[in-house]
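Form P-L/3: holo structure prediction, ligand S-adenosylmethionine.
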Amino acid sequence: MSRFLTPEDCNSKREALHEVLPLVNGPFCIRFMVTLACNFKCYYCDYQNREFKAETMTFEDFKKCVDHLDGFERFKVFNFTGGGEPLTHKDIARMVEYVKNKDITKTIEITTNGSLLTHQMSDALLSAGVDRVKVSLQGRSSQAYRETCGVAVDYDELKEQLCYFRDAKGPDVILFAKIIDQMIPTPEERSSFIHEYQDIVDEYEIDCLFPTPSAKEAVSSEYNNTL
Ligand SMILES: C[S@@+](CC[C@H](N)C(=O)[O-])C[C@H]1O[C@@H](n2cnc3c(N)ncnc32)[C@H](O)[C@@H]1O
Ligand code: SF4
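OUTPUT (holo model):
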């Protein structure tokens, strides 16, 4: 059974910055973008609405970058994310394994839209040593996905993939889902979201839409005024 992340939960996992600053021996967390390519085109996402070339880092370059991180204090988190979708990278599991074997971080996370979290991908990431998978949900139906991301996603299949990951992982691995408030605007929809996911993920969060240029352009003027 998962639980809603209360401010107390979040705070208990936080380190008091005044106790760790100044950082004398390297960064606290690393966010690593292994690709700018994405299989979605979310209307609010600046990365997909700007003229970025969808470049992808080679495994060799990734290794060089990670090798340069040797000698720092162990990071709290090494997060694979993207100006794109990290699971589109063919070497993503190898990359996770490489970081795991270097023992440079307490936790390895992947932030993903979840669409490519197939059973095979789940098995590979779990074997490689991922500690936390953070799935960014883009709606609660195939139709909502089409409207938000401009692509066809079988919502039931996506949920089934999350259930597979839930069942395959051990208790120390965290499955996390987040959704943007604008996709579930009413209190009823938020309760229903929590009800839908409380037995699937370990933790979940309702995030707010950042007022990026793409988000501001796309959302209604009523919501826009609150950004
Ligand atoms: C840029 S995506 C990259 C990783 C992956 N493609 C994904 O969607 O999780 C990282 C996170 O940024 C969030 N994001 C991007 N633009 C945003 C915005 N304007 N407001 C809130 N969250 C945003 C996405 O929802 C996602 O959770
Ligand atoms: S899946 Fe992630 S990177 Fe891709 S468009 Fe959506 S938010 Fe941006």
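COMMENT: The domain at 3-226 is CATH 3.20.20.70 (TIM Barrel).
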